């Protein structure tokens, strides 16, 4: 019987453990943070729970555009909002940013308590699943003391035929902006707050910074977003990023592009962010969203021959193998792609390979990802940059969400569906969706990319009328204009 020892209980670790156990191996998971790892306890699960709460506030603020007028206390009170929906384009060129109804209040302690409890419950659910599958769980820190041996902080040594390193990553700190957990924060400090920040200064406009800027603005905080690049979300589809930045500005977020933070200091009950050009930004709290670093120090990896990259990431191939036979790695500690879905797949691939199962190498070109701003941005496959630089030959079309009938009914005007296909064959190469619940809509495009479906096949597939997904079939018809129904959004 093969013995597997896994260091780290996040998605890469626990998914690997489940695969190993299902294939008859004896599996031990060693974890010091709690099963589910940072993803479940301090990162993905709590952040998206907070964002789900913020979405409710956004929906309330959109109500007047749908003919629903929240009133103040008492009969016959004046509407709490003007009849223009918050976050929607207005006929006026300027005006104050609208906010959710004043008759609705956010109770911060309840919000944060729910976030923490849901994360703990999810961690407990995963641990119970591991126990049902007869996976041994050891709550301790660990380090390699040999190519196939891990010693825990409690003094035990676990020897395995196969070792998997899945220790994740931690928020990156700046020497000039040291988090104190009270006013200068990383995203892992947010859920211990007792209040919604009065004015949150977000340093960093990548995925994490954009998501929290969007969420806290919806929860009523004043938000300033400090971006060192020319636009928010510099690594994403430029058209999608442009939509999000326009929505941010319209909703009252102050976006400071081409502005690099030099330092962050506490000043009394607030913070001051000093920019490299001499300007300063003051706020009640600062959120440092400047990336992450792999948790590979002190694990004894290089001592046993595991090669690390310049940033400290574990070097792996597409089968999750490290430079040491029998030692695999998965998740954010590898730096391959910081997504829970990728970590989980790396862990599964490692176990399938180690236990002799038929397995295909990791294919990043088929990975779908999502940014949980409002609206969301979901992507898969070929990108606009790849097309524009000539790296991939592709045809592309973009269908604005503003002409989708369901979007009109919902009062949504921001967003689009973009599809890329191969010239000639029409094989779907990728897509971008900017819309409410884009994370749910992208699956159909991901299936098309994974299985080589053509735009003709999508165009001849029935979509619900009316539905947001109807814009996906419409985009496919636009890419194949010879289709009789080209340009129409009703497949019937």
From TrEMBL:
Domain Pyridine nucleotide-disulphide oxidoreductase dimerisation, first and last residues per copy: 368-476
Which top class of enzyme applies to this chain? oxidoreductase
Which keywords describe this protein according to UniProt?
FAD, Flavoprotein, NAD, Nucleotide-binding, Oxidoreductase
Q: State the disulfide connectivity.
A: 39-44
Highest taxon above the source species = Bacteria
Q: Give the GO molecular function terms.
A: flavin adenine dinucleotide binding; NADH dehydrogenase (quinone) (non-electrogenic) activity; NADPH dehydrogenase (quinone) activity
Chain residues that bind FAD:
48, 142, 332
For this protein, the Enzyme Commission number is 1.6.5.2
One Pfam family for this entry, by name?
Pyr_redox_dim
Q: What cofactor is needed?
A: FAD
Name the reaction it catalyses: a quinone + NADPH + H(+) = a quinol + NADP(+); a quinone + NADH + H(+) = a quinol + NAD(+)
Listed name of the protein? NAD(P)H dehydrogenase (quinone)
Report the source organism. Frankia canadensis
């Amino acid at each position: 019987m093969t013995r597997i020892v896994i260091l780290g209980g996040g998605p890469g670790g626990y998914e690997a453990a489940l695969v190993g156990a299902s294939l008859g191996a004896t599996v031990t998971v060693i974890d010091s943070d709690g099963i589910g790892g940072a993803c479940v306890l301090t990162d993905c699960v709590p952040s998206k729970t907070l964002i789900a709460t913020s979405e409710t506030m956004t929906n309330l603020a959109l109500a007047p555009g749908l003919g629903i007028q929240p009133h103040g206390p008492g009969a016959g009170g004046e509407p709490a909002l003007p009849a223009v929906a918050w976050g929607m384009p207005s006929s006026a060129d300027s005006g104050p940013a609208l906010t959710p109804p004043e008759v609705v209040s956010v109770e911060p302690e309840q919000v944060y308590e729910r976030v923490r409890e849901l994360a703990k419950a999810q961690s407990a659910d995963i641990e119970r699943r591991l126990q049902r599958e007869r996976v041994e769980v050891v709550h301790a820190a660990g380090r390699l003391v040999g190519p196939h041996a891990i010693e825990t902080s409690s003094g035990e040594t676990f020897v395995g035929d196969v070792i998997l390193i899945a220790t994740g990553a931690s928020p990156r700190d700046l020497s000039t902006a040291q988090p104190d957990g009270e006013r200068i924060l990383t995203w892992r400090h947010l859920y211990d707050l007792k209040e919604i920040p009065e004015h949150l200064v977000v340093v960093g406009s990548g995925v994490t910074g954009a998501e929290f800027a969007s969420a806290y603005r919806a929860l009523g905080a004043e938000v300033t977003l400090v971006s060192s690049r020319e636009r928010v979300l510099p690594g994403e589809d430029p058209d999608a990023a442009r939509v999000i930045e326009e929505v941010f500005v319209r909703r009252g977020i102050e976006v400071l592009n081409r502005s690099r933070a030099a330092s962050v200091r506490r000043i009394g009950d607030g913070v001051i962010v000093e920019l490299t050009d001499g300007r300063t930004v003051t706020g009640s709290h600062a959120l440092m969203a400047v990336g992450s670093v792999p948790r590979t120090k002190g694990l004894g990896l290089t001592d046993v021959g595991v090669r690390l990259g310049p940033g400290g990431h574990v070097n792996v191939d597409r089968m999750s193998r490290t430079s040491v036979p029998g030692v695999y790695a998965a998740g954010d500690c590898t730096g391959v792609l910081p997504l829970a879905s990728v970590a989980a797949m790396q862990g599964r691939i490692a176990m399938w390979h180690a236990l002799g199962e038929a397995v295909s190498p990791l294919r990043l070109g088929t990975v779908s990802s999502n940014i949980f701003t409002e609206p969301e941005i979901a992507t898969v496959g070929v990108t606009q940059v790849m097309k524009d630089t000539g790296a991939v030959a592709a045809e592309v079309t973009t269908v604005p969400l503003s002409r989708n009938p369901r979007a009109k009914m919902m009062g949504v005007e921001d967003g689009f569906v973009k599809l890329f296909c191969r010239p000639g064959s029409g094989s779907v190469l990728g897509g971008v969706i900017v819309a409410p619940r884009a994370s749910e809509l992208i699956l159909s495009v991901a299936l098309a990319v994974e299985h080589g479906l053509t735009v003709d096949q999508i165009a001849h597939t029935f979509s619900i009328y009316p539905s947001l997904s109807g814009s996906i079939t419409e985009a496919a018809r636009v890419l194949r204009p010879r289709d009789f129904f080209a340009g129409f959004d009703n497949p019937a």
